[in-house]
Structures are given as structure tokens and as C-alpha cells.
Sequence to fold (414 residues):
Amino acid sequence: MKYFKYITITALSLMLFAACAKEKEATEEYTEVSYYKMDSNGDLMRPTGYRDWVYVGTPVTPNELNNGAAAFPEFHNVYIDPMSYKHYKKTGKYREGTVMVKELVSVGDKAATSGIGYFQGDFLAVEVTIKSKELYPDEPGNWAYYGFHTDDAGNLPATQKPFGAQHCNICHQTSAAEDWVFSQYYPVLRAAKGVGENVNPEDSDKR
Amino acid sequence: MKYFKYITITALSLMLFAACAKEKEATEEYTEVSYYKMDSNGDLMRPTGYRDWVYVGTPVTPNELNNGAAAFPEFHNVYIDPMSYKHYKKTGKYREGTVMVKELVSVGDKAATSGIGYFQGDFLAVEVTIKSKELYPDEPGNWAYYGFHTDDAGNLPATQKPFGAQHCNICHQTSAAEDWVFSQYYPVLRAAKGVGENVNPEDSDKR
Fold:
């Protein structure tokens, strides 16, 4: 009975440590998981939470500059998942499982106190590309492309099958600066490439 | 001596728990700290790491649409610190200590395979606004504005004093949609406002 107190304290302490360590492991594990999810049919579930990912850049090619019929009349806000961003900073490469999201936003106002130009309006749709040798062994560069569109931007499809390579992949293959990614238009990626996993590119010479 | 083993194990277990709990606390503490830092003179140190914050939107008002002399000829990529974003989702308000960063990026290419338009070129400068009743009791809305500019974007000033209210604050006060923030041009903020601390706005009706 004399030992009992110590054994109890020891057991309780070990349990506390185990619980604490488990919680920590769960947090770290999150950063290892994929940022995409397939349903039981192998279709991509529309990603959410990407507005907390790393933003890389925004082109805009409005209708009025393209004879009233732009192929891509919206702002395109482009994000990369944070784990792949970290990997890209470390290696300068897009890892297996890289997810990039392109959020389509309408051209809203064209004038403000700051001047004449283009201001972001409403969210319209979401497009996604994933690089995976495992999932897309036959896609050029192992990149597949998905689009989540409807007329009601508040009610986008929950799942989607990839486009055929002729719809997106071929243009990325032909014109993107590096590994099917248009990084020539994404200054955040250009500055981050190989800068070091734990370096802030905002602080490096490459900024 | 018989107790010694248990006392040792107990002590070790408690140390392990304490170390683990401390690490966890440090991680959580990070999310509580400010996202700005002042030097010993009270000047703002140029923030870094903000490309990992939450992106809110990008207006562009190029020279050629403003008689060759735009007041703001660059893309403006705007970020909010993640803690303030979370607070804004929960309350719909900008908390004490909110930091927003505006990264200035040149207009680069004006044509690509996607069409005629504006594509982001090079990083030029960083501007910052902070809301703090404690730091800026006399600034309208308690917002102060800073600019980190030089001719060499790779070598921006390390610290900066705030602009006088007549330079930035007055225009924000007059024309910004809400609490000195031009959220009318930042769809991410419009969708996030009061949606719930742990809700992904991408998944809500407001998207």
C-alpha cells in the first residue's frame, strides 16, 4: 500500500503525457494528409477551406479586352495547399499530391476612388488541379483538372470527374512555365522556389 | 530506496508531460500573439510571413486605364492575419491588433494564351495597416497606415513610421465599406463576415 500513491501518480502522469502526445501527433498528422478527397466512385469532392491556403497570384482577362467574349472573363485567384507550398520552398518541385485551386471571381466594379480598373465582384466557381502519379498515371505530367461550375455559384456540384486532357492539360503542357503550372504569372511561387523550407521569401533577396 | 524507482518514474513522467504541455501552449500562444512588431523606437518592423496569411482580394488600376498616371498602377494583393480572419468570421468585426498587408505587384504581361488582360509581374513594395486603440488612440477608427517602399524592391526599409492621417486614413474613412476596410472589393471578407469561427465560407450559402 505504501507504493500505491507513487504508482497512481506515475500512471496518471503517463496517461497525461500519452494524451498530450497523441493530440500533438494528430496536429502534425494533419499537415501530412492530402488536401483532396475522393468519394467512393473516385470522383473529386469539391475542396473547401482553401481560402486558408497559400495564395499565389491573380490574372484577369476581362471580356471588354477580348472582343466581348473572353475565354476566361473572370479574376482567377489561385491557391496552393500549404504542405505543397512548403515542399516547393524546400525542393523547388511540385510534390505528389499537390493541389492547386483556382477560384473564379466576377469582374465587379470598374472604377473606385483609387482609379479606373478592375475590382473583384462575386464568387462564381472553383477549379482544381491535382498532381498524382498514383491517381493519374496516364495524364501528361500526372496532372488532372476539375471544374465545379453551375449557374448558381452558391450551389456548386459536390463532386466532379476530371476533364479530358484536351480541355486543360494540353494548354498547360504547351504554355506553362514549369511542370504544367503557369508560375510565370504567380510571383509568390517564383519567389518561393527552392528558397528553403522555413524561409519567408518576403525576407529573401528573391522577393 | 524502495520508493526510489517510483519516485524517479513519477518525476520523469511529470517532466515529459510538462514539456509536452509547454510545447502545446507555445503553439497555441502563437495564434494569440500580435502579427506586428515594433522596434525600440516604436516604429513598425516590416512584416514577413504574410504570404502564409489569408488572402482577401486583388484590385488592379493600371496606368493605361488612368491616362498613363494611375495613383495606384500596380496589382494590390491584400492579406489579413489569420487570427483576425478567425475573429472576423466569428464576430464580423476587426479585432484590436488586426493587421492587413497590401503587397504591391507590377503589371507584367498583358497577353497570354488565356487572353488579353493583366498578369502579375514583380513584387514592388509592401504596405500595412493596423487597427489598435492602444497604439493609435487618436487615429480615426484607430487605424494607422505604413508604406515600405524603395527603388529596389529586394531591399525594402526594415522599419517605418506611420503615414499622417491625411495620406491614407481619410480616403479609407470616406470610401471604405466597413470600418476603414475596402471590403466591397474583397470577396473573401464579404463571405467570411460573421459566418462562424470554424466554418469554411467556401461551404456556406454566402460563398
